[in-house]
User: Fold this.
Amino acid sequence: MHLNQTAIKPTYVLLATLVLSVLLHWNIWDCDLIGIHAWRQTQTMTVVENFANEDMNILNPRINSRGDGDGIFRMEFPLMQWCFAVFYKTIGNHLILARLLTFLISIFSILGFYRLLLAWKLEPKIAAIGSWCFAWSPVFFYYSVNPLPDNMALCFAIWSLVWLKQHQHKGGDLSLALFAFMLAIATAVKLPYILFGAGYIPVFFGGLRERKIAKSAQAALLVLLLLLPALAWYAWVIPTWTNTALIGGLGVEESFDYQSAFRTIWGTLHSLLPELFINFGSLLFFFLGVWKFFKQPNRIKKYCAEVSILFFLLAYYLYEVNMIGLAHDYYLFPFLPILFLIVAAGLNSVLKNRHSIVRYIGLFALLILPATAYLRIEGRWSPMGFERVLLSHKQELKELIPSSDLVVVGNDPSTHIFLYHIEKKGWTYEQDWLLSTELQKYIDRGAKYLITNSDFVQENESINQFTANPLFDKDGIRVYPLIPLSDF
Assistant:
């Protein structure tokens, strides 16, 4: 059976991808934010809820870990959070709504990848099946319903590549402007996606080699002008960031651990890459795609834009390798389009192979992709650490304390999970790192309750002197009213 002899239609493949993904996420749609990277998800949704409930000014994203301040905390441009807040403000604060909106973004990512493969001149059937492979990347499958701005950034980055490839084939200012516009949004939503702009570098120099200097300069100026708003945002907010490792990366020489970097690189290559990003079922296609690339004599010229992007992505990865580690898998989202372009190239070779046994092996690999993605990700939906106890009592804690009262909560190394679930604002601490002098300052600034999931309050007399008898004491979580200094 040859691919051309089958009744497979691209629409059927894309529809099957959508339906299967909905079904395999069936128990997740109304599931709370738990599991792997719940801290980043709760941070995202905290901003969403505060937009909807406090202030819809997109320039002022707010978090709950704000003490008695305004909570404004600017990192990436909060376009996704603001868009979600529009729906929250209209329909209400329902997490299933955020999951559905995130899934909608993921659908556009899959469709964008399908369009990208068509722009690569693959026939529609192969492009649709390549998108099927992309959709069952386990890491993409997991985050496709989890609210992270990385989903929106990835979506716009993929569509920017569509228009860049169109511009490479046909030229024209419209396709270039659409490339730059999509790239600008992806960059604003998540800064590392500016690296997709590296795909334009060989296009620009190609124009210079053809002595189209004026036209190339005008085109580059157009790209730069469309990127300026995103660049201006980061020029404004980066000086306020305090994470020196994130900003400095490899340049922070005193704190850079080279042994840890090598362990991370090895773990990424032999574990994350095959099982979490590509999917075991797509490995055959990936390795064949790599082999096919190196077999072609004109490969650099033919794939100059993609190679340029990959080069800059690898440089970014090495620069931030210790910050990314093996835990922050979504930091590697920018690699997904390139990885699955390679997969699609290998897929094309397998499904058109003259040996039927090779085609049947490829078909089997394609059919197991949903199962292998689901099985690899299923364990990620379990509560981690203190989340399990917190979730079982979150409703009681929300109702126990007036929403306007400030609280001090810990231990919570994320600074977001605890306050998000109990819908309160105030201060957080971790590892029992709460000094009596700090607590006294918090009380002076309006803190009314201390919520803790450890025994250190009972064991620490200097802290205990500021607390009354607990109002709540279940499964290791205690809520203490705080005593103002005037009451001593």
The CA atoms of residues 188 and 232 lie 9 Å apart. The longest helix spans residues 95-119. The chain has a mean pLDDT of 89. The beta strands are 406-410, 425-428, 447-452, 472-474, 477-481.
